[in-house]
Design goal:
Length: 110
């Protein structure tokens, strides 16, 4: 999962037109894979993104929950698979942030 999130951050860096969309959007997205009980975060800051393990004491703005397979589909970069995965995962947090994350992930698809 960590490798996959690192690929998402790399794809974001390559798509420079998305940097303007992310400037000023300082958010930490918590990612919980329920079947493997792993927790990651994807942090958007200063027009870029990076990922890492998510510990209990770190606060997050959005939480994405689902099985690891669903998360792989969500962050894998295939737009059709992304659409299917989006219906299966649960996202908790402000609607505005959910919509922004959705737009960013769709625009980073290969």
């Amino acid at each position: 999962m960590g490798r996959l999130l690192a690929e998402v951050a790399t794809r974001l860096q390559k798509k420079t037109h998305l940097h303007l969309m992310m400037i000023g959007w300082e958010r930490r997205i918590g990612i919980v894979t329920e079947d493997t009980k792993t927790r990651w975060h994807l942090t958007f800051s200063k027009g870029g993104a990076f990922c890492g393990a998510w510990s209990e004491e770190q606060s997050v703005d959005l939480i994405v929950r689902g099985d690891e397979r669903e998360m792989q589909m969500l962050f894998g970069g295939d737009e059709l698979v992304y659409t299917l995965a989006k219906e299966q995962v649960r996202i908790v947090g402000p609607l505005r942030d959910q919509l922004k994350l959705d737009a960013i992930l769709r625009l980073t698809c290969k």
